[in-house]
Amino acid sequence: MYAILDIETTGGQYNEEGITEIAIYKYDGHEVIDQFISLVNPEKPIQPFVVKLTGINNAMLRSAPKFYEVAKRIIEITEGCIIVAHNASFDYRILSTEFRRLGYTYKKKTLCTVELSKKLIPDLPSYSLGKLVRSLGIPVTDRHRASGDAHCNSKTF
Asked: How does DSSP assign 51-118, residue by residue?
């Protein structure tokens, strides 16, 4: 089982970022069997460049659940799964950091689709998610939003 995920953050100093949006598609090797998509109130302001990139702003997150309110669902949907993400070390670090703030150790195996694509499709000029999916002919929607990016990534995987 795989949990294909993408996280959008506030930006900011290393290990001080907060999650603003998360999308997880649980994949059994054949099809998506469950999904979780949510905005998340990071309880800190979003950096202006991130607002411009994602379109997610502070006002949108005021009534969004805080991380502790979605943490149980994240644990449930990723139970028994390998975490798959484009630049998995970033998403996994952010997720682990949020759980650590709650006093919980979140440990999962990860699979990075950047590293995987470099091995399977050598010599591409770029392995950014947008350029990778375009080179594979995969339609891109909602770029730089958790759901759109995780969905694109599920097609590369």
From this structure: HHHH---HHHHTTSPBHHHHHHHHHHHHTT-EEEETTHHHHHHHHHHHHHHTT------EEEHHHHHH
